[in-house]
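Customer ticket, subject: "Can you confirm the structure for Putative transcriptional regulator?"

Message body: Hello, I'm evaluating your service for our small team and ran a test protein. I'd like someone to confirm that this is what the system normally returns, since I don't have a reference to compare against.
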Amino acid sequence: MPIIVNLDLMMAKRKISLNELSERVEITPANLSILKTGKAKAIRFSTLEAICKELQCQPGDILEWTDEANVTSP
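Agent reply: Thanks for trying us out. I re-ran your input and got the following:
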């Protein structure tokens, strides 16, 4: 998938656990885990806004687009 989720990196930088962030943004730990691992098919803007507010970051710090067609495999 060409969208890479860097939520785990931002959480590590802010030293916040999955459970703590899930409580603060009022999303289940299971759903936050699905997002964190890149398995989510969509995210609501309200959820993205809440995550960015808690982590004091921009959406682009969490979501990254890559052009798979131009990525070479090792």
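A couple of notes from the result: The radius of gyration is 13 Å. The longest helix spans residues 45-55. Feel free to reply with more questions.
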